[in-house]
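S1.2 Input.
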Amino acid sequence: MAETQAGIGYGTLFEYSLNNGGTWASLAEVTNITPPSDTVDVLDATHMQSPNRTREFIEGLVDPGEASFEMNFIPGSPADVAIRGFRGSGRISCRITWVNGTIWTFKGIMTSYAPAVPTEAKMTATVTFKVTGSLVSTPLAAPVNSVLPAISGIAQVGEVLTAWEGVWSGSPEFTYQWNADGVAIGGATSVTYTPVVGDIGDPITVTVTATNLVDDTSATSAATLDVIAAA
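S1.3 Output.
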């Protein structure tokens, strides 16, 4: 019997765009998302000669319904300001990136922004959109790097270098391989690396491998300056 692929929603991302998908911004501290849910109108097509005096029906238009999310309400926060700015903005591009990397993109008109401020519980807010038009589902693809990994720190014996993985699509997990003058350093596979005497004179790079359910992809940072001896 196949093992279940069920999962929790932690890590799901809700984003919006005010320029038709040119740039996207996420909304912080979203706690629950209700995605669009299609319903199909059913039209009564019964006529005088319907067989057996039985009603007949045909499919009508598809109603994409509503989409909503709940969030921690923080008055004056960037999320609060952004959402209040949705009023009068017309159709807003929205997208939900699920934890497995699948993306749902749709357009919606914000119809409600409802904060709740209880006496003895956290403040929350619910944002509701009327969805307009069809939802587009983009399946999970192999990770794609859009901004190369980078290294912070001083290339000096005894000084800690830290890798930044860069920017990737596909909701991947990351592994690291540090290199001296382009050659992999044995055992140097954590997010940090401390140069040793044997690295003196060599530039250091880090290769980041991004892996998701589809495939893995690697990208290498720019090189540091040549490693120098300890001060």
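S1.4 Remarks. Residues 149 and 166 are 4 Å apart (CA to CA).
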